[in-house]
Amino acid sequence: MESFHLSETPIDSATLSRELAHASAGGCVTFAGWVRDHNDGRAVLRLGYQAYAPLAVSEGERILVEAREKFGIIDAHCAHRVGTLEIGELAVWVGVSAAHRDAAFSACRYIIDEVKQRVPIWKNEHYADGESGWLHPDNTPVSGNDRLV
Amino acid sequence: MNYRVLYFASLRDRAGMDAEQVNSLALDARGLYTELRARHGFALDESRLRVAVNGAFAAWEQHLHDGDEVVFLPPVSGG
């Protein structure tokens, strides 16, 4: 079953959470990434996400496999939105179930960090002043950006 | 050789298109990017990009084949 999902529609985190349930699981850690109204001192109106879908899914799946191997967890899922998102919308969701909490917290952190560094998804911030810009993994602007005014 | 090139993020904005069919003499991704950078005026140096061929990460020197799908990946920013 696929564990990494790209979605053009709102992420159903409740359903994804239920899929993590297992008789040997002692806990579940989830991370929800929301669209916030500011970045780097600028007011943000909305975000646009693009993805190179085939590679995003295969690289996302690879990260989930790594997390299972490194931390001995029971299951993990990740979903990421593409398209236009408004302030407050769920942009990315990670859920991990494990026998014990240490492994679940560590694996959840690993997955979101690796997704941000490796998966070919791009975030375009649309600012209140009418500009927009593509960002780095640390949310700083890509210099050499061809900013749209 | 004919390649299908896909564009994302700032490269898509600058090229003004999502994808194009490119007829080129370039035999690897480095040569192809050099050619397309000159054509579209891409600001990003190849040191800032990664390459994917047919849906998998690839080396800049990987030999390209007719019909390959080539993607130049700007710095990513998911999450």
Structure report:
The complex is a heterodimer of chains A (149) and B (79). Chain A is 30% helix and 36% strand. Chain A is an alpha+beta fold. In chain A, strand 3 and strand 4 (42-51) form a beta hairpin. In chain A, helix 2 packs antiparallel against helix 3 (101-118). Chain A is elongated, with a radius of gyration of 16 Å. Chain B is an alpha+beta fold and 79 residues long. Chain B is built from 2 helices and 5 strands. The chains are: A alpha+beta (149), B alpha+beta (79). Chain A binds chain B through residues 33, 49-52, 54-56, 58-59, 80, 91-92, 112, 115-124, 134-137, 139, 142, 144-146, 148, and chain B through 6, 8-10, 12-14, 43-45, 48, 52, 55-57, 71, 73-79.
Main attributes of the structure:
heterodimer; A: 149 residues; alpha+beta; five-stranded antiparallel β-sheet; four-stranded mixed β-sheet; 9 strands; elongated; B: alpha+beta; Ubiquitin-like (UB roll); five-stranded mixed β-sheet; 24% helix; 28% strand; globular
Care to give the gist of this entry?
Helix content of chain A is 30%, strand content 36%. Chain A is an alpha+beta fold and 149 residues long.
Element layout with pairings:
The complex is a heterodimer of chains A (149) and B (79).
Chain A: E1 4-7, H1 13-19, E2 27-34, E3 38-39, E4 42-51, H2 53-71, E5 75-81, E6 83-86, E7 90-98, H3 101-118, E8 121-127, E9 132-134
Parallel strand pairs in A: 1-5
Antiparallel strand pairs in A: 2-7, 3-4, 4-6, 4-8, 5-7, 8-9
Chain B: E1 2-6, H1 9-15, E2 19-23, H2 29-40, E3 50-53, E4 56-58, E5 69-73
Parallel strand pairs in B: 1-5
Antiparallel strand pairs in B: 1-2, 3-4, 3-5
